[in-house]
Amino acid sequence: MTVKIRLARFGCKHRPFYRLVAADDKSRRDGKQIEVLGFYDPLQGKDDANRVSLKFDRIEYWLSVGAQPTDSVENMLFRAGLIPPKSMVVVGSKNGQKSTNHHVSPITGEILN
After folding, report:
1. Is 10 in contact with 18 (CB distance < 8 Å)?
2. In a designed cystine with 67, which of 12, 14, 20, 62 is the match (CB 3.0 to 4.6 A)?
């Protein structure tokens, strides 16, 4: 059983409200969940304290036992400071010359090796 940390949609039509949940990857989006880890309300203002609420200790536990966050949840966890950013890879240049693969820091843009 693979566990995913993902968003489950609640609310009415045109008034979405999401719960951050740990769920089996084979269950439906709004189906059976293992644990509720927080919530996200996209209709709140960007600076509003009620926009996102996360249970940091439980999220860290699920990440430590191998739960995989979805892309949207991964962005939320990065903004909250729970996970490091993904490394980016530079493959080539515009003038057609092939270059070796370099890892680039997404925050500073420096080449890492």
Report:
1. yes
2. 62
